[in-house]
Amino acid sequence: MTLPRRAVLAMPLLLATPARAQPRPVIVLVHGAWMGAAIWDRTAAALRAEGFEVLAPELPAHGADPTPPEAATLDLYVRVVLTAIGDRRDVVLVGHSFGGIVAAAVAEAAPDRLRRLIFLAAYLPASGDSAYSLSQRDPASLVGRHWRQDDPARYSPASLAREGIVETFCADCTPEDAAWLVARHRAEPVPPLATPVTLTGARFGAVPRAYVVTTQDRTLTPDFQRAMLAAAGVTRVAELPTSHTPMLAAPAALATAIATLAQP
Prior knowledge:
By secondary structure, this protein is an alpha/beta fold. It has helices spanning about 40-50, 75-85, 100-110, 130-135, 145, 165-170, 175-185, 220-230, 245-250, 250-260; strands spanning about 25-30, 55, 90-95, 115-120, 145-150, 160, 210-215, 235-240. The strands form two sheets. A six-stranded parallel beta sheet has the order 2-1-3-4-7-8, sandwiched between helices. A two-stranded antiparallel ribbon has the order 5-6. It starts with about 25 loop residues before the first strand and ends with a helix. This is Alpha/beta hydrolase family protein. GO terms for molecular function: hydrolase activity. Keywords: Hydrolase, Signal.
């Protein structure tokens, strides 16, 4: 895939070799709603080429995972990520989109295992927030326009209208990548989206945080992303001039952003 020349970081690169080399952290990539772990393949490969150990767990009822949607819970997602982390203690946890909620809950559960949280075009919650409650603050998002759900009263799984998937998630992708994403679109379990997280300053708040803003995003709009990071007091920020899925539109630039923000 040929990357657009405009897909560069809007912050200075900090990847020069330091006077005393720091051990590289393990990078754990958590995908978002309607996606699976394969969305990370190119970015993970770029990070591994730079010497990072990279893990990309598949959340239950996503991607190729066989869990039925009705069995999916936010707690189950958190347990899957914690299992992937295992006994590692120097982890940079990256949450994309709804994966930001999962990452925040993981940080609350195991802050001692994390070097840093990176929110990538992600929901950045305060205690009591859910993905659903936060989404109500972003009326310009295209998700609501294309949301399809058979039985909302019973929290049935939700999809995006097929004709709206590319417009919402990856308007800047190649036709081949857009077709790949549409083919893998899977109905999303709704209860985890509506589950609030309980976060404390002593645990979640003790983990340093960074954010990657995607400035052409129509899923979580750039203004909404910036409002969340400002409310959370996050000042370590990169920007990518991409849609909601830079892992497809600009995977090498995204890998550079993650590696930069992962530095101590």
